Amino acid sequence: xxxxxxxxxxxxxxxxxxxxxxxxxxxxxxxxxxxxxxxxxxxxxxxxxxxxxxxxxxxxxxxxxxxxxxxxxxxxxxxxxxxxxxxxxxxxxxxxxxxxxxxxxxxxxxxxxxxxxxxxxxxxxxxxxxxxxxxxxxxxxxxxxxxxxxxxxxxxxxxxxxxxxxxxxxxxx
Length: 173
What we know:
With 173 residues, the chain is mainly alpha-helical. The protein has a domain at 118-173: Arc Repressor Mutant, subunit A (Orthogonal Bundle), CATH 1.10.10. Helix content is 81%, strand content 0%. It is built from seven helices and no strands. The chain has helices spanning 3-20, 26-42, 53-86, 90-116, 120-131, 136-143, 147-170. The protein is globular. The model has no long low-confidence stretch (mean pLDDT 79).
């Protein structure tokens, strides 16, 4: 049995139970835990072996859960706002929400394609910053570089992604 499998079997239920404490459904908690373990697998080469795996998993689960909750909250707010402002019935609001979900999916795919074009080190820094929510100091410690180097790389990442995201920034509709 691989060390990853052992780690999964050891920590999966703990991560699910930890996420459940936030009052989400079992399905959401399991999705978050699965995403965290996929992320762990994808970043296995860059994870500091000195760092506690359990704390890494819980921090990643917290960040992923907050992203899921924030997204759900935004969708709910847009739906409620559409109903209130436009006097539309619930079906129209749901259709509007579905359109927003499609646009969000398209934006997510656009970002993913842009991130895929970054250098391996930049992709790593991007994911640690954006997905894991680590600070420049934490990323620097994890990768053995200075926080200033992390900031320089983040600036380069923004400059690399800006051209493909320009239409989203200039005209969000």
